[in-house]
Amino acid sequence: MPSPTDSTAPAARRSDATRAAILDAARERFAADGYERATIRAIAKDARIDPSMVMRYYGSKEGLFAAAVAVDLRIPDLAALPRATVGETLVRHFLAQWRENEVLTALFRVAASNPAGAERTRGLFRDQLLPAVRRVCPDPEQAPARAALVAAQLLGLGLTRFVLRFPAAVELHDQEVVAWLGPTVQRYLTAPHP
Questions:
Q1: In sequence order, which residues have a C-beta less than 8 Å from that of residue 188 and are 6 or more positions away?
Q2: Buried b / exposed e across 108-143, counting CB within 10 Å, b at 16+?
Q3: Around Cβ 30, how many Cβ atoms within 10 Å?
Q4: Distance CA 43, CA 22 (A)
Q5: What is the pTM for the complete model shown?
Q6: Other beta carbons within 10 Å of 8
C-alpha cells in the first residue's frame, strides 16, 4: 500500500513544475513588455496554463512580479578581502552578475519605467549592497550615501552595457571596465572623506 507521501509526490512535482513555468514566462514577459504591458493572460499563455493558476499561486500581478524578480546578488564579503581590492572586486562581481543573471536585467528594464520595479530595485540594493558597504565604510553614518554612489556606478554600467548596449560600453573588455570603475568604487567605499 502506498504511503501518503508517495501519492502526493507527483502532485508536488507538478506544482513545482507549474510554478517554474509561470516564473520563467513572467521573467521573459516582464523583460520584453515591461511591467505595465505584461498581462497575466499573456504570461499564462506563454506558460501553457490557465490564467487562474497564475492567480492561485501568486495572488496578483504584483505578487508574481515580486516572485519572478527575486534576486540574490551574492555580494562577496568585502570585509574579508584586502582593503585595497574591494572596489575592483565589486565591479568585477557586478559585471558577472549582469552577464549571468537575466532576472537582474529584466528587473532593471522594468524599474526604469514602473514604480513597483523601481521599489523592488531599491529594496534589492538597500537589503544587499548597503550591508556590504557598511562593513568597509570608514564612517557608518556615510554608508547610505556611499552605497547610493556605488549603486549609481554599478547600475549605470548595467544600463549602458547590458540594457541599452551602447557600442563603446559593450566593446570594452572587462579588465578595462574594472580599471576605469574600480578606483572610483574603491574611493566611494573606503576614502575617509570626499
A1: 87, 146, 149, 150, 153
A2: bbbbeebebbeebbeebbeeebbebbbebbeeeebb
A3: 26
A4: 7
A5: 0.77
A6: 12
Cα distances (angstroms) measured from residue 172 to each of 17, 104, 190: 39, 21, 26
**62 and 110 in contact (C-beta within 8 Å)?**
no
Q: What is the pLDDT along the chain (194 residues), one digit of tens a residue?
A: 555 555 556 767 788 899 999 999 998 888 788 788 899 999 999 999 999 999 999 988 888 988 888 889 999 999 999 999 999 999 999 999 989 887 788 788 778 777 878 888 899 999 999 999 999 999 999 999 999 999 999 999 999 998 889 999 999 999 999 999 999 999 999 999 87
Which set of grid coordinates corresponds to residue 26?
513572467
Backbone CA torsion sign across 140, 145, 151, 157: negative
H helix and E strand count, the chain? 11, 0
Instruction: Name the burial class of residue 181, with classes exposed (0-12), middle (13-18) and buried (19+) by CB atoms within 10 angstroms of its CB.
Output: buried
Report the C-alpha gap between 146 and 78 in whole angstroms. Answer: 14
